[in-house]
Amino acid sequence: MTGVYTLPPTPIQTLNPHLSPEEVEAASRKGWPVTDRPAIGSGLFYLGGGRFLGVTDRGPNGDCPGGKSFPLPRYSPTLVFFCLEGQEIRLERGSPLRNPKGGPITGLPNLPGEDVPFVDRHCQVRLPLDPDGVDVEDVALTPSGGFWMVEENSPSLLYADSSGRVVVRYTPRGVRPAASYPVRDILPAILRQRRANRGLENLALSEDGATAWLILQSPIGPTADPAFDQSLVARAVRLDVSDPLRAKVTGLYLIPFSDPKEYPKPNRPRDMKYSAAAFVKDQTILLLERAEGGARVFLVDFTQATNLLERPDGESPELDRAGIDYAALGIRLPERRLLLETWRLGGFDTDKLEGIALLEDGQTLALVNDNDFAITGNEGPSRLWLVRLGTKLR
Questions:
Q1: What's the whole-number mean pLDDT along residues 27-39?
Q2: Exposure of 277 by Cβ count < 10 A (0-12 exposed, 13-18 middle, 19+ buried)?
Q3: What's the predicted TM-score (pTM) here?
Q4: Is residue 394 one of the residues assigned to a domain?
């Protein structure tokens, strides 16, 4: 551990200047007790020179039966530029995501069948869906100055221009929200079987901006079926994004999770999550796995992994069931090398880490938490940890 940095109390309008004081005050009455602890760490990208790009998710939201409450429904997921100063995170600017006409988009669900949005913590009055809405979970800056993002709801891959206007959105085959920007359903249809609130959470973009890796947060399939409930693999997608307007899927893979018993607290297979990714080199990425009790960081190498696009059963959910002998099927999973376990380091006061980045020395990792906008009032502020590894990765 080389340092811990904290975001000081920050008014939400610093990120979303289109919100009025009256809206923020009303959100407090609707179930958001602390309005100055924004969550800037749903994703993380290192800009170089000690500067970072973070991203917020859909905004303050609380749990409801069958859905979520949105006390601040006009909140817009935001690109957050910041640096480290002393022991603090210093915000440079926030750039809310916008539609083609320049209006801010929201974090509300975009299709029926997703989490039902409610007005407040009483979970009685519904909000309308927003076809433009996105729940952003990771981000990367392209060499040309645009932004790639992944989001959970559809789930989707988004491309935005340098001003944060969404230019195009890529969804699984057969998923076409009636958004105000172009939607292309080119992603593997198997992603439609992601679990509720467990969509695309991880994005790694190559340094040349030509290749993107997307990974689901959790296994697919219904937890009511024991064969899927015990599953310990997630789906990963590789794309050629050299032309952002004409992205092409080039790979589909399975990635294993750790045995839940390897964590210091009790966990089930359904508790395992991949929550952040970052590009390293060639066919290798960093992947942050977490569960109750802490997080692990792995170096994941796809070089010898089986590309399931080359198999007729590649999108079959049967491959995601527990107990599959992949070697017998001729499927090679990517190699994972464990780099660190947060519970062995000390200094981490949360296991809800959702952003990771590799600094220019190739040896220092930045990890950032998602504090859920302090929706219950008990969450601490957004924090960033710097950890130096024992070996260089590039």
A1: 96
A2: buried
A3: 0.97
A4: no
